[in-house]
Amino acid sequence: MIISSPNDFRKAARRKLPRFLFDYLDGGAGEEMTLGRNLSDLSSITLRQRVLTEVSEVHLGVELFGRKQALPVILAPVGLTGMYARRGEVQAARAAAAAGIPFCLSTVSVCALEEVAPQSSAPLWFQLYMLRDRGFMRELLLRVKAAGCSTLVFTVDMPVPGIRYRDMHSGMSGPRAAARRFIQAIAHPAWAWNVGVRGRPHVLGNIAPVLGRSRGLEDFIGWLAANFDPRVGWRDLEWVRDLWDGPLVLKGILDPEDARAAVALGAEGIVVSNHGGRQLDGAQSTARALPLIVEAVGGSSIAILADSGVRCGTDVVRLLALGATGVLIGRAFVYALAASGQAGVAQLLGMLAKEMRVAMTLIGANDISQISRDVLDMPRTRAAQLSPSGVAE
């Protein structure tokens, strides 16, 4: 098929992937209400189109945590990325480095940190979960330091995995899951050969030491449920802060009080996120949560990043206008990776950059620093953010 827009990669990925993998990537928690709101609330944010603004050149570069990057975009941590393309995390990291942006490796990646880092020309970011085994966490943080990762992204919104019905229907989990996945795989022979056979080993590289011989997908799902720590609190994050001396970013903040607590902890950044709608179905969308968090902590030195619902370059501009200093992209880049590997991710990033340049030209912004609430069409934005009673908030 012809890929002419970022959303085309989703269609291409759906054709190429076994259902259990596509649905794991594409789905959300519960009835997927929050997943849907992420998309609809963000797309409802309208921009003020201006004319005769003399925008001769558009600059997309930003600086985050002392490092310059070509776009205000980061490839977000996505578990099992290596199942969507052969050694997928390596391909994604290479594409990100070539585009001059960070790639954040997931704790539950297929390719281990020690495989990905040497093949990237830029320092990685690394995403960490709070696990019950603090000894393993200490060892993993030492590995992250040894690999030269520049930024630690601590995911705080997953003390327990969300309930994801689509995974049970598709065969990612549930009854006879292994047999169902096998049937789906052989129905997609290109994926089965390129990734299923040539992409081995299919181990969870970063957590292999604690999994031992149990490394299959059943072990992945079971491991998540058994090892995430629902008792985690702010004092536990102080323990991480003591072990990690680089930039620390807390991912999964939706409430202004939690954002203030992150500032008090000394975190260098937060990610306003509902985990792509994959945790609490009924949580507010990022587009709704972000302005209140910016109001609460925007005057501090903390970097306010955002994700969830981003599908195009205009979405990036929208989140920047709502107060984000950078935007993480997850599903969108994995769709592109599944469709065309490293080249697909590179193509997607080129599309996002082009869309951002067009949007910025039409709103009269030469530079990322000029994107603010002033570029929003506020009356329409407020009208789109109606309370359940239908009265504008």
Q: In a nutshell, what does this entry contain?
A:
By secondary structure, the chain is an alpha/beta fold. It contains 17 helices and ten strands.
Describe the structure.
By secondary structure, the chain is an alpha/beta fold. It has 17 helices and 10 strands. It has helices at about 5-15, 20-25, 35-45, 90-100, 115, 135-145, 165-170, 175-185, 190-195, 210, 215-225, 235-245, 255-265, 285-295, 315-320, 330-365, 380-385, and strands at about 60-65, 65-70, 75, 105, 125-130, 150-155, 250-255, 270, 305, 325-330. The strands form 2 sheets. It has an 8-stranded parallel sheet. Strand 7, helix 13 and strand 8 form a beta-alpha-beta unit. The N and C termini lie far apart (about 45 Å). Mean pLDDT is about 90; it is low at about 385-393.
**Unreliable residue stretches:** 386-393
Mean pLDDT: 92
Q: Based on CA inertia axes, which overall geometry fits?
A: globular
Percent in strands: 5-15%
Helical content stands at 40-55%
Oligomer: single chain
Total strands: 10
Sheet with the most strands?
8 strands, parallel
